[in-house]
Design goal:
Layout lengths: L6 E12 L2 E12 L3 E5 L6 H8 L7 E6 L2 E2 L5 H6 L2 E4 L11 H6 L5 E2 L2 E2 L1 H14 L15 H14 L4 E5 L10 H13 L3 E5 L3 H7 L2 E6 L2 E7 L5 H9 L23 E8 L3 E8 L4 E6 L5 H8 L7 E6 L2 E3 L4 H6 L2 E4 L3 H5 L6 H6 L3 H5 L5 H16 L16 H13 L5 E5 L7 H16 L3 E5 L3 H7 L2 E6 L2 E7 L5 H8 L5
Parallel strand pairs: 3-10, 3-11, 6-9, 9-10, 15-20, 15-21, 18-19, 19-20
Antiparallel strand pairs: 1-2, 1-4, 4-5, 7-8, 11-12, 13-14, 13-16, 16-17, 21-22
Helix pairs in contact: 5-6
Bound molecules: adenosine-5'-triphosphate (ATP) and magnesium ion.
Length: about 500
């Protein structure tokens, strides 16, 4: 930042309460033209609420918003749009059937008489994509793009509409590690044009790559704003959680996969079409096995199939040495298998049930045995998980899931399955959107459950996560297992190499 930098946006003393609980308490942020400002804080700190106020999705209870030094009223998203503010949502409400060109030029397609001049249209679209260095065929349908391509197309669309401020709320949560760079290239191109970015992420390494300054919130209050060059990752974590976090590598005893212990899960020759083939794997009780693969490798399809969400056409699954037929998730559940799905919104949560009900959902059978004690037992079990994982919400455990922050929703899905008393737990991206402090709590709970005999199979695109929780790691490339590493053998380089199809 130089003194000549222009102050573009000021949010001053913003206040907001839900259910009488203050979730933003006089929070102020400044945004300069052409900078990337990171907005950081633990799950439930108020980040999404603040930017929803900026976008007119929520109404503030107090405070002032200024653009170019002038107070502005933002009562609805349309007001924000008129002021040049654009939100890039994680799940785009894009029209999948449209081509990239149609999506970008919607309402402004070049015409020749009464017909669309497609050649000119595609050329215009191509030019716009080039602004953000995206080399993409504009005749492609939106639904055939990768998540990152789709997001960049949305950004391109935003800047063609004269956006000055682009807000990204955890844009990379669903990105595989090798695609983040593509988004960052386009952010750098935007900033060069004087556009400003507000960037929210729980991946602190990203903040150091892309942000100029970082503003930290804690419990709805402003902790401070720092220039990235003046600060370390450790300082940031300390600002976020209020104390130092030391992630001691816990000395856990790792079960010996080669021992004579009978496997609890044994998968042989499992295959589904061309998505994955010949998958052999086994887990003994107490083992945590990670499966690592790049986008489209088929690793998440493997665990979804074990859970009965789709049918294999070859191979078998055995639980405790007995072959089981799993044609749907209910069969899987009966066989003692649980799944924490990757897409929590669609599969994992009942958004209109409250926190207590969601946590105890998969355990209702066990609870009803207690007859009229059910409610109080449900309550104390839910409270246990709220404490253990630090689940936070403004209205207590009767708050509907829909009103929890993203990371806290994810903790509830996890709590439900950790509570569920299964033999084998399948996890898909268990800490998407979960803040650094809470991530450590989740890993500790996984370790604790494993040491009581639970077998855990974990799919994650977060290499650090795979490396720090797994006792053993398998790599998948194009639907095939390409490597197996013990915790002591596994390293970033080896896993990436094997996941990219390299042979060792
Ligand atoms: N519509 C709503 N109704 C009730 N409470 C809400 C609503 N929206 C947010 N909250 C509460 O406001 C607080 C802040 O939530 P917010 O979504 O802003 O957190 P966040 O910092 O974005 O967290 P995360 O990192 O988990 O996404 C939370 O306690 C949340 O439960
Ligand atoms: Mg959020």
């Amino acid at each position: 930042m130089t003194p000549s930098d222009k102050l573009l946006l000021q949010m001053q003393d913003i206040e907001k309460s839900f259910y009488g609980v203050k979730v933003l308490d006089k929070v102020s942020i400044d945004l300069y033209a052409g900078e990337v400002l990171a907005l950081l804080g633990e799950n439930g700190a108020g980040k999404s609420t603040l930017i929803k106020i900026l976008n007119g999705d929520y109404q503030k209870d107090g405070g002032t918003i200024l653009i170019d030094g002038q107070p502005v009223q933002i009562n609805r998203p349309r007001d924000a749009e008129a002021l040049g503010i654009r939100m890039i949502y994680q799940e785009q409400h894009y029209a999948g059937e449209l081509s990239v060109t149609e999506n970008l030029l919607l309402g402004h397609l070049p015409m020749r008489g009464f017909i669309v001049d497609w050649k000119a249209a595609h050329n215009q679209a191509r030019e716009r994509l080039k602004l953000l260095k995206l080399d993409l065929d504009p005749t492609k349908l939106m639904m055939n793009l990768t998540v990152v391509e789709r997001q960049i197309v949305e950004v391109v669309k935003a800047i063609s509409g004269n956006a000055r401020i682009i807000v990204m709320d955890e844009p990379t949560a669903a990105f595989p590690p090798n695609e983040v760079a593509l988004l960052f290239d386009s952010i750098r191109a935007l900033v060069k044009q004087g556009i400003s970015i507000i960037y929210i992420s729980h991946r602190l390494d990203e903040i150091f790559q892309i942000a100029d300054r970082a503003t930290v919130l804690r419990d709805g209050k402003l902790v401070g704003t720092k220039s990235i060059t003046d600060i370390t990752q450790r300082d940031l974590v300390q600002m976020m959680v209020g104390h130092d976090v030391t992630r001691g590598t816990s000395e856990t005893s790792i079960p010996d996969a080669n021992s004579n212990t009978k496997p609890v899960l044994q998968v042989s020759g499992l295959g589904r079409g061309s998505i994955f083939t010949n998958i052999d794997l086994q887990l003994i009780p107490g083992e945590i096995v990670g499966i690592f693969g790049l986008l489209g490798a088929g690793h998440d399809a493997i665990i979804n199939t074990i859970f009965g969400e789709s049918q294999p056409d070859r191979g078998s699954i055995m639980i405790d040495g007995k072959q089981v037929t799993i044609t749907n998730p209910r069969d899987a559940r009966r066989a003692g298998i649980g799944l924490v799905p990757g897409d929590r919104k669609v599969q994992g949560l009942v958004l209109d049930m409250n926190v207590r009900e969601n946590v105890t959902l998969s355990n209702w059978g066990a609870l009803s045995r207690w007859g009229f004690f059910q409610r109080s037992s449900e309550k104390s079990r839910a409270q246990q998980w709220i404490d253990r994982l630090g689940i936070r919400m403004a209205g207590g455990m009767t708050t509907k899931l829909r009103f929890l922050s993203g990371g806290n929703q994810q903790k509830v899905v996890l709590a439900r399955w950790l509570e569920a008393n299964v033999k084998v737990l399948l996890l898909n991206e268990p800490t998407w959107g979960v803040d650094v402090g809470a991530r450590g709590d989740i890993y500790a709970q996984l370790e604790a459950l494993a040491s009581q005999g639970l077998a855990i199979l974990l799919v994650s695109s977060d290499l650090d996560e795979v490396l720090s929780v797994s006792h053993r790691v398998l790599t998948v490339y194009k639907g095939q297992l390409t490597g197996q590493f013990s915790r002591s053998e596994a390293s970033r380089e080896k896993l990436l190499h094997a996941a990219a199809g390299g042979t060792l």
